[in-house]
Amino acid sequence: MDVNMDDDLTKKLKTWSVAPGATPRFNAGVWQKIAARNQVREQSAAYGLSGIIRALMMTWRGATAVVLLAVTLGAAAGGIEAHGVNAHRWNTLGARYADSINPLAISSGAVNR
Amino acid sequence: MKKAAALATLGMFAALAAGGAYYTAATHETKCLLSQPGGEMEWLRHEFQLSDAQFKQIEAAHVAYRPRCDALCARITNARSKISQLIAAGQGATPEMRTALADSAAVELDCREAMLDHIQTVSNYMDPASAARFRKMMEDRLIATSSRAQMLFEQ
Predict the structure, then answer these.
(1) Which of the residues A57, A67, A107, A112 would you substitute to probe the B interface, choosing the one with the greatest number of B C-beta atoms within 10 Å?
(2) What is the pTM of this model?
(3) Within a 10 A sphere around the Cβ of B65, how many other Cβ atoms?
């Protein structure tokens, strides 16, 4: 084989570079993936809630409504808790009355007089 | 986004404050009743919606019952201490122990009789529906407290 031909071939091979072009549907595929990811995020409850809050934030009326709703929910929770505590205390008072007329309970030290 | 976070924080504090305020106001009465000495009599007044006249009569009956109750308490204490002494002496089921146990049982019987009398007296001042509810409630509670007293005594 000719040595010069080998050199030429080597030089040509060195200058070659492969530049693969994007597939014809490349951009569309990327946009489809982004859209799918956004859809999943938008369907999450946290995103929905923050979206509602952000929408309500746009007006003073909306912001006031959020605070009023929070106050109502807080008061309702306080009311439920208070109901349970009152029922328990009421029961304790009833037991205390029964003990106050019961010499057996009094003499056992179950009653403070 | 910052405004939304501020609003959420404000809402949370407002909810906590409202809940706390409501809870404090709603439980104030029972808290006071529990901490004051005559709270159980106020319980009776509210629970059975007693009129002032009914409440005064029941209160008087309660005060009149106290000496009888105190005398029974003293008898119970004596009977129990007698049994404790005999147990400590390690004599077992002697005739003396049998007498002490019989005395203790007799005192407990007198106690239950006195309680039933008092319950009847109190219920006489109530309207019929409240009286029946009161007797039922006391029956349930007194059976429970008698068992509890027995458990405390046995400890």
Answers:
(1) A107
(2) 0.68
(3) 18
Contact B2, A61 (CB under 8 A): no
**Residue of A108, A111, A113 to mutate, interface with B, max B Cβ within 10 Å:** A108
Looking at residue B155, its pLDDT comes to 45
Average pLDDT in chain A = 81
Alpha-carbon distance of B105 to B99, in angstroms, equals 10
Tokens at residue B138, please? 């006391």
Q: How far apart are CA A1 and CA A4, in angstroms?
A: 9
Burial of B108 (0-12, 13-18, 19+ CB in 10 A): buried
Contacts of B72 in chain A (CB under 8 A): 103, 107
Q: Give me A48's structure tokens.
A: 């929905």
pLDDT at B22 over 60: yes
Summarize the confidence of residues B24-51 as an average pLDDT. 92
